Amino acid sequence: MLVFSGRCSRMNISINQKTACPGAGFAGRLARPGAICLLLAVVTLAVFGPVVRCDFISYDDPEYVVSNPHVQAGLTLNGIGWAFTTGCASNWHPLTWLSHMLDVTLFGAGPVGPHLMNLLLHTANAVLLFLALHQMTAAVGRSAFVAVLFALHPLHVESVAWISERKDVLSTLFWMLTLLAYSRYAQSRARGEGRGAKAIGSALNLRLSAPLDYPLALLFFALGLMSKPMVVTLPFVLLLLDFWPLGRFEMAGARHAPFATFSRLVQEKIPFFALSGISCVITFLAQRAGGAVQPLATLPASLRTENAVVSYLRYLGKCFWPANLAVPYPYHHAHWPLLLVAGAVTVVAGACGATLWWRNRWPFLFSGWFWFLGTLVPVIGLVQVGDQSLADRYTYIPLIGVFLAATWGVAALWQHWRLPPTVAASLAFLILGTCGILTASQLRCWRNSETLARHALALTANNWMAHHSLAVYLADKGKADDALAEYRVALKINPDSVAVLNNLGAALAAQKRFTEAIACLERSWRLRPDRANTHCNLGFALEETGNSDAALAHYAEALRLDPEYATAHFKLGDLLVKRGNNAEAIAHLRRAVELQPDFLDARNNLGVALFNEGKFEDAGGCFLSVLQIQPDRPGLHSNLGNVLAATQHWDKAAREYTEELRLVPDSTDARFGLARALVHLNRQEEAVRHLREALRLRPDFGAAKKLLQAVDSATPPSPPIKLSAPHTAPSP
């Protein structure tokens, strides 16, 4: 039988021992692993269930799901190819993209499906964590407690409730599967070596009773890396698990040659380390190309180091006292107080020293602490990505280490002090119940962007990101003045935020305050000339002020930076239509519709360009496709009427113009079109009435005057006047 170590064996725990048979009756059945898995799933679904009523939020969700044409198209061959080749969102995580596409295919474009999928993945992660710990330790109660704590801890709300953090829950699924496969592999080798089998040779000599365990572990790890690169630390965690609870440092001969044993175990994981290295390189290149990595000029190394050490202390504090949780936590750009930094260094260094000192007596403290310490390294801020100082979502995997150390540590003390099991059970239920209540409360903050932002603003100071998020939400809800106020507050806190400058400029342009808008957008452009949406917004503002040549250049630059930017294709196509270059406009407008099939403005304007090129049937198809979705959209019936008139379908054209006038009684173009149709239908009196009304509304309407004169000079029963198709296209 393989035990942890000589000094730990007094606890009478071994990784291969059979679980003691629980007592008979209902309580005994509940203590079985299968029943625990079921209860764990039910509790997790019950506590997190309200998340399916939450909306998308303005942080990342538009880029990941709402406005991403590849995701909105569902799971397609083109989408799969894009997922594996894109660096969108400053990351390479193709499986995450594929999972979002699958959501749209299965559930449609709304937020319910993605939230449900996140919840199911989180539930699966909790169950798999229990199974992995139970497999490695055979400790049912402690494994279950850690798994429930993982499932219900309030710090994990962010990873589950935020749709864009699918990468968290998905990568953790593969993390857990890797642990399961690896522990089977390790235990299989231990059984062979424990029987006095051939001495351990090459680390890659996989003579196993279950020969697929090692390759499966490697495959699951690769899939995890393709979901979120934060799992690069998993090979180091496997080494910690080799120490405890797998006890591989205590295998035959290891006690007399510890360095040789460690070297062998490291060599065994060379394929894992190789995959981690490749993932690190790809991630760094993707994040740098996307502008997500903060330069040292913005955040000096001294500030990063201080924030990293203090963040470890803050994460520990939030683990044991999960209060005042917000999204996001603004970066502390000034130096932290010296006393706080010194205290954080003391805590971190002291914990490292203590766990090293007690590594043989209490190996779970060593493995748990360094699990927490090591898995946070990629996101602790030494390489700063984004503008947050820390984030609850970053604790999704690291906190498992703290839970392990605390749970097994308290259990050891409980056994040493011989305290009643009923007290331990009561304390466990109190802790888990409190976590469930706090999690349910925290979920209410994620109802939408406004509730999330206002919650953050109530808990943090100078949180420009929360003000910006609130402004975006208010702008989407049509509260333009309130949105502008929030944008200005955010800009006052962070004057160099390219995102705030860009969105403020766009909001000002929407209010036709183009001079102010151009000033904001040009500043954003100079700070970050590689942002396609800034070029697009600036192009629109310049176009509206009559500078169409400069607008054309900015639209073209936006498409150079992002060839699949549907809005830039639309804007450029629209401008080309106005300049009479319909053939080139058609190509851009078609591309906009291909990238975003529900882009109704692009469909309408594509119809305009096709009409101008004499492609009446194709133009009519565009207008009809929009009318099927928006039958009361102003201008569309008139556009379709023009197509029908051009193809001599006068009766149908008259019906479309009449419908347009029902929606927009003051439309002079619709009245003129209806009059033309009525003339061809030999209904001159009605035509005259509509022409006179059009001239009353628009006295300088030359085409209406000309047609009225022609009708007045005609003497029945002369045939209807034959008119050519209008030279002007329907209005975009």
Protein model, in words:
This protein has 732 residues and is mainly alpha-helical. The chain has a domain at 45-444. It contains 35 helices and no strands. The protein has helices at residues 26-30, 33-48, 61-66, 69-72, 77-85, 94-107, 112-137, 140-152, 157-161, 166-194, 213-225, 234-243, 258-268, 270-289, 301-320, 338-357, 363-375, 399-417, 421-443, 449-459, 464-476, 480-493, 498-510, 514-527, 532-544, 548-561, 566-578, 582-595, 600-612, 616-629, 636-646, 650-663, 668-680, 684-697, 702-713. It is elongated, with a radius of gyration of 33 Å.
What's the quick description here?
The chain has 732 residues and is mainly α. It has helices spanning 26-30, 33-48, 61-66, 69-72, 77-85, 94-107, 112-137, 140-152, 157-161, 166-194, 213-225, 234-243, 258-268, 270-289, 301-320, 338-357, 363-375, 399-417, 421-443, 449-459, 464-476, 480-493, 498-510, 514-527, 532-544, 548-561, 566-578, 582-595, 600-612, 616-629, 636-646, 650-663, 668-680, 684-697, 702-713.
